[in-house]
C-alpha cells in the first residue's frame, strides 16, 4: 500500500545516496562549523548496543546550536534528519524549528526519545507555526513524554493545516490521555491531509477513542490508525466502529492489546470494510452534539479524576521561583506564572527538571506548588 511505504520514512532514512553520520559532519576542532554539504540524510541518533555502552554517533550535549546554525546552509538534497536519543530541551526544539524553516527541504524528522515533553513540543510548535517547513512530510515524536497539552498544540498544526505537506505523525509511547484524544479527534475532523497516525502505548481509554471515532466520521484522508495498548474497551471500540461507518478512507485500524471483546472487534472490522453510510444514516444512530455544548462540557467529569488536585487546606498561594541551571534551560529561574503559561500545571516537577528538581518538589505536580497560577484558588477543591 502506498501509505505503508510512506510510513517507512519514519523508521529509516533510506532512499538516500549519502547518509551522513556524526563523523562525517561534526568538526574536529572546537568552534569550527559543522559541514552538511552532500548529505541526503543525516543520522545523529543514539542507539547504544547495551544500557551500559556509550553512544558515540549521537548528538552530544551543547551540539544542537551549531547543528542548527549549519542546517540552513546544507544542500537542498538533505531530506531526512534523525536525532533519536538526543536531549533537545525547549531551547533546542525552538532552534530546530527555526532551522527547518530556513533550510526548507527536510521531509522526514525523527525525534524519538528526545525527552521533549509538553514543554519541548510547545517550543517546537510555536516555531513551526511562525515559519512552517514547506516539505516536512513525516514527524516522529514517539517516546517523548508528550501529554494532553502537547497533543493540544500538535492538533493546532493539523487543524489549521500549518504544515501542508505533513502526512505521517508518530506519537507512540507517550502520555496522551482522553483529553488529548479529544484534541486529536477534532483535528481529524477538520484536517484532510494526514494519512497515518500512530498512538500506541498512550492512555486514550474509551473517551479518547470516542473522540477519535467522531473525528473519523468527518475525515476523508487518514489511511492508517494504530491504537494498540490504550486501555480501550468495548465502549470505545464501538464508538470507533460508528465513526468508521461514515469513513471511506481508513484502510487499517490496529486495536490489539486493548481488552476489546472478539464480537466488538468483528464489529469494528465490518465497519472498516463496509461501504460508507451517508451522513444522515450515521446521525440517526447517535445524535451529534451541538459544538458549543461540547466545548462547554469539555470532559469535565473525566478531568476531575485525571487532573492533579492540590492538598486540601492551607493558604492558596504560589511558591518559587526556582533556579534552573540545566542545559538549554530557557531562563535562569522559572516561576509559577511561567509554568502555568506553558500549560504545565498537570506536569510533575521532576519531569520539567529532569536532572534535579527543586528541593521539596520531587513527585509533586506543578498545581500543588502553584495553586494561584494554576487556577486552584476558590475552585471546587475549596467549596
UniProtKB/TrEMBL annotation:
Coiled coil: none
InterPro entries named among the record's database cross-references: Leu-rich_rpt (IPR001611), LRR-containing (IPR052394), LRR_dom_sf (IPR032675)
Keyword set, alphabetical order: Signal
Entry-linked Pfam families: LRR_6 (PF13516)
Signal peptide: 1-16
Domain of life (superkingdom): Eukaryota
Acidic residues composition bias: residue spans: 292-305
Keyword Signal (UniProt): yes
Presence of the UniProt keyword Ion transport in the record: no
Stretch list, region Disordered: 274-313
Protein name as it appears in the record: Uncharacterized protein
Source organism per UniProt: Prymnesium parvum
Amino acid at each position: 500500500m502506498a501509505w505503508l511505504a510512506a510510513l517507512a520514512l519514519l523508521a529509516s532514512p533510506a532512499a538516500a545516496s549519502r547518509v551522513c553520520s556524526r563523523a562525517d559532519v561534526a568538526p574536529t576542532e572546537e568552534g569550527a562549523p559543522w559541514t552538511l554539504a552532500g548529505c541526503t540524510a543525516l543520522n545523529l541518533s543514539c542507539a547504544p548496543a547495551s544500557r551500559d555502552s556509550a553512544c558515540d554517533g549521537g548528538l552530544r550535549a551543547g551540539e544542537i546550536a551549531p547543528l542548527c546554525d549549519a542546517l540552513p546552509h546544507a544542500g537542498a538534497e538533505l531530506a531526512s534528519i534523525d536525532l533519536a536519543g538526543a536531549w533537545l530541551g525547549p531551547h533546542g526544539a525552538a532552534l530546530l524549528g527555526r532551522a527547518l524553516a530556513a533550510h526548507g527541504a527536510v521531509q522526514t524528522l525523527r525525534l524519538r526519545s528526545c525527552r521533549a515533553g509538553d514543554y519541548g513540543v510547545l517550543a517546537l510548535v510555536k516555531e513551526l507555526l511562525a515559519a512552517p517547513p514547506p516539505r516536512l512530510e513525516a514527524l516522529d515524536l514517539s517516546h517523548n513524554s508528550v501529554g494532553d497539552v502537547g497533543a493540544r498544540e500538535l492538533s493546532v498544526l493539523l487543524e489549521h493545516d500549518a504544515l501542508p505537506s505533513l502526512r505521517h505523525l508518530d506519537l507512540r509511547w507517550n502520555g496522551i490521555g482522553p483529553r488529548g484524544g479529544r484534541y486529536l479527534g477534532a483535528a481529524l475532523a477538520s484536517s484532510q491531509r494526514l494519512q497515518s497516525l500512530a498512538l500506541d502505548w498512550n492512555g486514550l481509554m474509551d473517551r479518547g477513542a470516542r473522540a477519535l471515532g467522531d473525528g473519523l466520521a468527518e475525515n476523508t484522508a487518514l489511511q492508517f490508525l494504530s491504537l494498540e495498548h490504550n486501555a480501550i474497551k468495548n465502549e470505545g471500540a464501538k464508538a470507533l466502529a460508528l465513526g468508521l461507518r461514515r469513513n471511506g478512507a481508513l484502510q487499517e485500524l490496529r486495536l490489539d492489546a486493548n481488552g476489546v471483546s472478539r464480537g466488538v472487534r468483528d464489529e469494528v472490522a465490518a465497519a472498516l470494510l463496509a461501504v460508507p453510510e451517508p451522513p444522515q444514516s450515521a446521525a440517526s444512530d447517535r445524535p451529534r452534539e451541538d459544538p458549543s455544548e461540547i466545548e462547554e462540557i469539555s470532559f469535565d467529569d473525566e478531568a476531575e479524576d485525571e487532573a492533579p488536585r492540590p492538598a486540601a487546606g492551607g493558604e492558596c498561594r504560589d511558591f518559587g521561583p526556582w533556579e534552573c541551571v540545566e542545559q538549554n534551560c530557557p531562563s535562569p529561574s522559572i516561576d509559577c506564572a511561567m509554568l502555568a503559561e506553558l500549560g504545565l500545571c498537570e506536569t510533575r516537577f521532576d519531569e520539567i527538571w529532569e536532572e534535579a528538581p527543586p528541593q521539596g518538589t520531587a513527585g509533586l505536580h506543578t498545581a500543588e506548588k502553584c495553586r494561584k497560577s494554576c487556577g486552584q484558588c476558590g475552585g471546587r477543591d475549596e467549596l
